Amino acid sequence: MKIFEKLWHGADYNYEQWLDSPDILAEDFRLMRLTHSNVMSVGIFAWAMLEPLEGQYTFDWLDQLMDSLAANGLSAILATPSAAPPAWLSQKYPETRRVSELGIRQPHRRRQNFCYASPIYREKIVALNTRLAERYQHHPALVLWHVSNEYGATQCHCELCYHGFQAWLQQRYGDLDSLNQAWWSTFWSHRYTDWSQIEPVDPSMHSLMLDWQRFISDQALDFFLAESAPLRQITPDIPITTNFMQPDVGLNYWHFAKHIDVACWDSYPRWHQSDDLQTAMRTAFYHDLHRSYKKGLPFLLMESTPSVTNWQGISRLKKPGMHKLSSLQAVAHGANSVQYFQWRQSRGGEEKFHGAVVSHLASENTRVFQDVQAVGRLLEKLTPLTATTVQASVAIIYDFENEWALNHAQIPRSLAKNYRETCQQHYSHFWQQGLAVDILNTEADFTGYRLVIAPMLYMLAPGLAERIEAYVTAGGTFVTTYLSGLVNESDLCFLKGYPPPLRRTLGLYSEELDTLADHQFGQIVPSAENPLQLHGVYEFYHYAELVHPEHAQVLATYDSEFYAGYPVLTANTHGSGQAYYIAARTESRFLADFYTHLTKHIGLENPLCTRLPDGLSIQLRSSVNQRFAFIMNFTDQTIPLEIGEGWQDAVTGLPSPSSIIVPPYDVLIVGQQR
Hints:
- The structure is a single chain.
- By secondary structure, the protein is of the alpha/beta class.
- It has 3 domains: 2-387, Glycosidases (TIM Barrel); 394-602, 3-Layer(aba) Sandwich (Rossmann fold); 616-673, Golgi alpha-mannosidase II (Immunoglobulin-like), CATH 2.60.40.1180.
- Strands 10, 11, 12, 13, 14, 15, 16, 17, 18, 19 and 20 form an 11-stranded mixed β-sheet that branches. A 6-stranded parallel β-sheet has the order 5-4-3-2-1-9. Strands 21-22-26-24 form a 4-stranded antiparallel β-sheet.
- Strand 18 (567-574) and strand 19 (577-582) form a beta hairpin.
- Helix 8 (206-234) packs antiparallel against helix 13.
- The protein starts with 7 loop residues before the first strand and ends with a strand.
- The relative contact order is 0.09.
C-alpha cells in the first residue's frame, strides 16, 4: 500500500480556525518543515466552514490549504466532517438530534450529537462528502480519507432508532417465539407479543441490552458505510480509515475493521501518574489490539499528545525522553506513523489548553517543539521499518461482545469483574519478556499461533468451542480461566455443568463458584513433580471455581478454604495439543511463573536475550531479510542489557556492542540481517 512507503509524522491541523491570521498560517508551514512533518489531518470539524448555510458550499479556504500542503511537500489526510454538525442543520432539522432514554430531544451542543438513523443527516453528509471527493479526487496532497472522527455508541431513543432496532431483531431471530426463547423472557413476565413492545430500557433483561449494544454498533457501522460510499465510488484508489479509540466507546471495532483499509487509533496514556511500567504495558496492549485489526499490516497512530491533555482530570508533563519513548513505542508495536492532536493550540473552546506542537507561546524554542522535531528527524532515518511487520506466535482473545455480556451479568461477585484488566494481566508477562502478542476476537483464525489464551471467556458463540477444539487437536496450546463457557451468544446459561462446549477439550467441568471480598485471599500450591516445575505458594482472590477433572492432569490445588485440595490449575492433552485451565483469579506472580515455564515448554523465546531485566520492554519488527529490535526503558533508572553479537545501531548503521546501557525513559533501536 502506497501510504506505507514512509513513516508519517504530523498532526491534526485546524487551519480553518486561523483564516483571519494569514501570518500565522504562513508561519505554520515553516514550522512544519522544521519538525520534519510530512502529513496533516485536516477538515475534521469543518462542516460549518464548508457549508455555512444549507446548500451553500465554500471550498476556497480548503483549496488554499490543500495547495499549500502540496507546495510544502506535505500530504493530506482529509476528513469528512460528520462528527460536528453545524447549528443551522440542528435548528432546521431537529429530528437529526439524538433523543435521551427519557424521550427528550437533545439540544445542539458539543459534538457527535446526531442520530445515526436520521435520513436527513445521512442525505446532508453524503452530499457534502460527494463534493469533497469530486473536488479533491486528483489533488496531489490527498493520500487518505479520514471518515468522521471517533465514532461512539451514544444511544438514541427516537422512533427511528426503535423501529430500526425492532427490524434488526426480526432479521436476527425471525419470529417472536424464537426471540422470547433466546431472551428467556418468561422471567418476570417479560414475554413479548408484538415487536413494538420491545424498548431497550430494561437492564434486568440482559439479552435485550446485549442485543441493543450490538444494534448500536451495527447502526454506527451502517452510518460509516453510508457516508464513505461516495468516497469509495469516486476515489477508489484512495484508502479509507476512521480513528478508533480504546474499547470503552462500546463499538465492535472488529466489524468496522472489515471495511477500512488501514487501522488507526488515538492514544492518550496517563504517563507519570502511577506506575509507568503498568501504563506502558496497557498502552502496548492497545497498540497490539489496533495492529491486530488488520493482521499483517501496520497501523497508524492518528492522535497522541506531544505534551498534555486537558480532559483527563490530571495530565502531567512528559519527563525528558518520554515523548520519544512513547512515540517509538507505537512504532515498535507496528505503527507506521506518529501523529498528534493538535498542531497549534486553539485560542478558544474546550480544547484551548490541550497540548500541541505549537503552543500559545508560538515558539520553535520550546521543549515540546524540540522534542517533536527530534522525533521527526529520527523517523526519517527509520524508513527501512516500513518493510517490516510484527510477527506474533502468541494470541490473547479479548472480545468486545464477551465484555458487554459479562458487564451485564449479575454474578455472585459483580464488583471488579475486570475482564479487560485480566486480559492485560495475562498479556503483561509476554510484554515483559519481549514476546509479540496479537489481540484477537472470538471470530479470528487461530491457525499459526503456538499459544492462544482466552481469559474469562464467559460467552461462547456458536462454533467457537469447536474451533478451539480443532486448534488444540492440531497441536496448539490453549489457556482459559474461571468464568469461561457460562452462556451462549444470547446470554442463556449452558446446562449440565460449565463449560459443556469445552468440556472435552479441557477435560473437566465446573460445579461451583466462590467469591471473596477484597480483603480475603487464599493460597495455591503446585502439585509435586508437576511438568511445568512450579513450586512455592501463591495467592488467589476474588474468584475461585470448584472444578472436577475428568481427563485433565492436576498441576496445582487450593491450599485454603473448605475446598483445599480441589484443582486450581489443570492440563489436558487433547489430540496433539494441550488445554490448560486456571480456576481462580491469581496474583500476577503465579501467572508470570506459569507462562515462563509454559513458553519454555513449547519453545517460545526472545531472540535478543533469554530474560529481560525488570523495567525494559523489547519489541521486534521483522521482514524476510531483516529485523529491528526496540529496547525501551520505562523507568527513571539506567538499565544494562546483554544482547549478543551481530546487531547494528538502526540509526547510524554502526555495529552495536553486545553490552548496552539503556538510559532512563529512552529507547534504543538495533537491527540485524536475517
